[in-house]
Structure formats: structure tokens, C-alpha cells
Write a structure and sequence with these properties.
10-stranded mixed β-sheet; Isopropylmalate Dehydrogenase; 40% helix; alpha/beta; 12 strands; binds nicotinamide-adenine-dinucleotide; 2 domains
């Protein structure tokens, strides 16, 4: 099975290298092909997402992505900046469902922004719709009748877009504890009223799933007050952008958190939620676990290798239990030593 490796910039190549070592240990079914992306691709080929990289991403069964972002490129025109590569990949590959698990390894309970007894109960997946909502509606600047400047961004979802992401939510819940919470603002927004109506319609296909609804303001509060109540949350692009970052920080260090962006056929792009961390790049300080855990998601969601995914996740837990810590977790291990610790646990 062909895997596109897009290491990118900064710490991206460092964390991808450790992840490939781990993948090679658990399966011999993968073939890797590497291509430049982000600032590295701009410097080599003049574009953050060169045609050959996009072609590899299209041919591959799944994409393992490091991170993009390079301070040298901060003054380029927007369409040439490294971060455009990720937006281009989402669009070109139709990646509409962003899955972010927020699970706290019990060994890291003190790394959470929440009290350990509250944080310890976190075990959820937030599913954010990626291709619609206020980000993609008509937008612009205009003048009011009295000549004042006015910015506007139109929020909209059509019922097919909602039904598609709702099904991802129900199916994810079915593979977990069977609870789906749909987050909206139906008390105020028509877009949200349609969202809620369609989620309820789709729920008829999933009678085994316990569906609930929550307004986004309450969801933000509940994520901090009692995050253990959530199994799977499904929400739109804007609310998901904010809530998924909030949930991440409740679950501990940025160096620990994986993500997946999926198309309609379970093809996906897998990446850590962190960026290229230019402040620590090249120093062996990066925590590779977020990328290693992203690879476990890839095995489970896109490649049908759930047992291998379980092995990787268990090995990460075992390494932490033995005290393996990179500097972001308060330890002294290098990136490679953390990779070694996971391999040893395997
Ligand atoms: P960042 O996530 O790169 O770093 C934030 C802080 O967390 C830094 O102090 C960094 O050292 C630390 N950190 C991040 N990952 C770590 C890891 N694995 N181990 C240990 N420490 C880690 O965010 P930023 O500094 O805001 O952005 C840097 C660049 O990354 C920017 O160019 C930004 O646009 C880009 N970015 C890219 C993505 C992506 O590729 N998907 C996501 C976020 C930011």
C-alpha cells in the first residue's frame, strides 16, 4: 500500500523519520514515497504544493504529513506561503472530515490545563466539517448606507454537506462508545437549524447511536466542566475550529495530539496538530508522539490495520509509563530517543 510521506518544514522531517521507524516495525505492507511540501517545496521547486507532490498524494492510499511553515517564507505572496499546501491538499483531495481524538494518557494527567481528576476522564473524538460554512461562503468588504466600512462572510451549509459529515459522526460513534453529540447554534442561526434537522433525519439510519444536541456556547463550557461526558462530537467548520483546539489543550501537550482529514472513501491525510516549531527545529527536541499516533490513526481508518494501530497506541502508553519524556513533557529525551522508547515498547 503506497503511503505519501510529506515531511515538510521545521520539525516535520524529524518527527516523520521516527514515525516511519515505528511503522516499519509493525507492518511490512507499506511502501513509502517522499515528496517536498511547504517551504521546503517552495525553495526547491518554487511552489508549496508542486504538481508531483499533489500527484503522489492522489496516487497514494494515505498521506502522512509532518508540518509546514518556514519563517523565511513569511513575506511571500499568500498563495506561495507554505501553509497554502495544506489548504490545497484538502481542496484537491476532497478531505471534508477532520477527526481529532482528544485522549489523555493517564501518565500525563498533570500536563493538562484541567485538574487531573477532570482531565483523566477525557476520551473523545471531535469531528469538524472542513469544506463548508462561513469560511467558504461569499465574503467581502462594503460600505453601509451611511458610508461606514462593513465586512461580511456568509455562513451556509446545504443538506448534503450536513448529511455527509453527520454520517461520519454516527459511524465514528458506532466504532466507539455509541454516543454522538451534535454541536450547533440552532437557537439563533438558520444554518444551524438546518444542521440540526438533517442530523436528526440521518439518525434514523443509526438507531443504535445515542444522539444529543448542544449549543456551541454550552459545549465550550462543558468541555472544561465535564469533558468525560463526550464520546464523539460532530460540528461545523467554524465551531469545530475553536472547540477542537480547546479540547486539545484540555488533553495535554501539543506534541501528543494526532489528527486525520478524510474524504468520502476513507482516504485520508494524517498529521500532528502542531506546526513546524521553527524555535526547536534541528535540535532533536521535538516530541514525535503526535505524528506516531497520527500514523496509528492512518492504519486504523484508511488501511484497515486496526490491530497494528492498537499496538502502536499501546506502545506509546507503555513508553510514557516507563517515564519516557521529551522536553515538552518535562523530560530530557531527544526525538530519536523517544522513537527508541516506542520501538522498545513494541
Ligand atoms: P507550532 O505548533 O509550530 O509551535 C507552538 C509551540 O509548541 C512552539 O513553542 C513549539 O516549539 C512547540 N511544539 C510544537 N510541536 C512540538 C513538538 N512536536 N514537540 C515539542 N514542542 C512542540 O505553532 P506556531 O509556532 O504557531 O507555528 C509555527 C509554524 O507552523 C507557522 O509557520 C505556522 O503557520 C505553522 N503551522 C503549521 C501547521 C500545519 O502544518 N498543519 C499547523 C500549525 C501551525
Amino acid at each position: 500500500m503506497l503511503i505519501a510521506l510529506l515531511p515538510g518544514d521545521g520539525i516535520g522531517p524529524e518527527v516523520i523519520a521516527e514515525t516511519v521507524r515505528v511503522l516499519d516495525r509493525v507492518t511490512d505492507k507499506l511502501v513509502f514515497e517522499t515528496a517536498p511540501v511547504g517551504g521546503a517545496a517552495y525553495k526547491a521547486e518554487g511552489h508549496p504544493l508542486p504538481p508531483a507532490t499533489l500527484d503522489l498524494a492522489k496516487r497514494a492510499r494515505a498521506i502522512l504529513f509532518g508540518a509546514v511553515g518556514d519563517p523565511d517564507c513569511d513575506r511571500l505572496e499568500r498563495h506561495l506561503r507554505p501553509e497554502q499546501a495544506i489548504l490545497g491538499l484538502r481542496k484537491e483531495l476532497g478531505l471534508f472530515a477532520n477527526l481529532r481524538p482528544a485522549t489523555l494518557f493517564k501518565e500525563l494527567a498533570d500536563a493538562s490545563a484541567l485538574r487531573p481528576e477532570v482531565a483523566g476522564a477525557i476520551d473523545m473524538v471531535i469531528i469538524r466539517e472542513l469544506n463548508g460554512d462561513v469560511y467558504f461562503g461569499e465574503k467581502g468588504m462594503r460600505k453601509t448606507a451611511s458610508g461606514r466600512r462593513e465586512g461580511y462572510d456568509i455562513m451556509s451549509y446545504n443538506e448534503d454537506e450536513v448529511a455527509r459529515i453527520a454520517r461520519v459522526g454516527f459511524e465514528t460513534a458506532r466504532a466507539r462508545r455509541g454516543k454522538l453529540c451534535s454541536v450547533d447554534k440552532a437557537n439563533v442561526l438558520e444554518t444551524s437549524q438546518l444542521w440540526r434537522d438533517v442530523v436528526i433525519e440521518v439518525s434514523a439510519e443509526f438507531p443504535d447511536i445515542e444522539l444529543s444536541h448542544m449549543y456551541v456556547d454550552n459545549a465550550a463550557m462543558q468541555l472544561v466542566r465535564n469533558p468525560g461526558q463526550f464520546d464523539v462530537i460532530v460540528t461545523g467548520n467554524l465551531f469545530g475550529d475553536i472547540l477542537s483546539d480547546q479540547a486539545s489543550m484540555c488533553a495535554g501537550s501539543i506534541g501528543m495530539l494526532p489528527s486525520a482529514s478524510l474524504d468520502a472513501n476513507q482516504k485520508g491525510l494524517y498529521e500532528p496538530i502542531h506546526g513546524s516549531a521553527p524555535d526547536i527545529a534541528g535540535q532533536g527536541k521535538a516530541n514525535p508522539l503526535a505524528t506516531i499516533l497520527s500514523a496509528a490513526m492512518m492504519l486504523r481508518y484508511s488501511l484497515g490495520l486496526a490491530a497494528e494501530a492498537d499496538r502502536i497506541e499501546a506502545a506509546v502508553g507503555a513508553a510514557l509509563e516507563k517515564g519516557a519524556r521529551t522536553p515538552d513533557l518535562g523530560g530530557t529525551l531527544t526525538t530519536v530517543q523517544m522513537g527508541d522508547a516506542v520501538l522498545a515498547a513494541l
